């Protein structure tokens, strides 16, 4: 299920945080909560790689190339009409996942290369 409202909120929260307009606490507050759209939870879990929840702070960049590519794919995926197709939504249990969102050849959160290419072309 695609939850347009939650995806729009996620886009805004990600952009505000990575553009240093909000803190990590603001991000957690602004990022959508429960949703039937599995992409929302999966992307929230991956975004946790970009901050610590031990103290309140703004994002400290710049992003490394693999992380920049990941964020670009996330921001392309969220407004798309694509369902999240991976079984994994939690990437902090390494033995339970085969997906590496930061991997050099990763297309995550897209499931197929042609979907990524089509969304890029239409962006």
Would you spell out the secondary-structure blueprint of this structure?
Blueprint (H helix, E strand, L loop, with lengths): L3 H15 L5 H7 L7 H10 L17 H13 L35 H10 L1
Helix pairs in contact: 1-2, 1-3
3D structure, described in words:
With 123 residues, the protein is mainly alpha-helical. 45% of the residues lie in helices and 0% in strands. It has one domain. The protein is built from 5 helices and no strands. α1 (4-18) packs antiparallel against α2 and α1 runs parallel beside α3.
Helix content: 40-55%
Structural class: mainly alpha
Number of domains: 1
Shape: globular
SSE string, helix = H, strand = E? HHHHH
Measured distance between first and last alpha carbons: 22 Å
- Overall mean pLDDT: 90
Number of strands: 0
Strand content: under 5%
Outline the biggest β-sheet. Answer: none
| Integer-rounded radius of gyration | 14 Å
Uncertain spans, ≥5 residues at pLDDT below 50?
Answer: none
> Helical stretch count?
5
Name the features.
123 residues, 5 helices, 45% helix
In short:
By secondary structure, this protein is an all-alpha fold. The protein contains five helices and no strands.
């Amino acid at each position: 299920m695609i939850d347009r409202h939650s995806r729009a909120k996620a886009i805004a929260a990600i952009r505000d945080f990575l553009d240093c307009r909000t803190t990590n606490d603001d991000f957690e507050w602004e990022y959508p909560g429960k949703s039937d759209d599995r992409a929302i939870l999966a992307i929230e879990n991956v975004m946790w790689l970009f901050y610590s929840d031990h103290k309140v702070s703004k994002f400290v960049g710049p992003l490394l190339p693999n992380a920049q590519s990941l964020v670009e794919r996330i921001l392309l995926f969220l407004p798309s009409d694509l369902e999240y197709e991976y079984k994994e939504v939690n990437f902090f249990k390494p033995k339970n996942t085969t997906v590496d969102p930061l991997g050099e050849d990763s297309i995550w959160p897209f499931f197929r290369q042609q979907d990524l290419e089509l969304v890029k072309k239409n962006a």
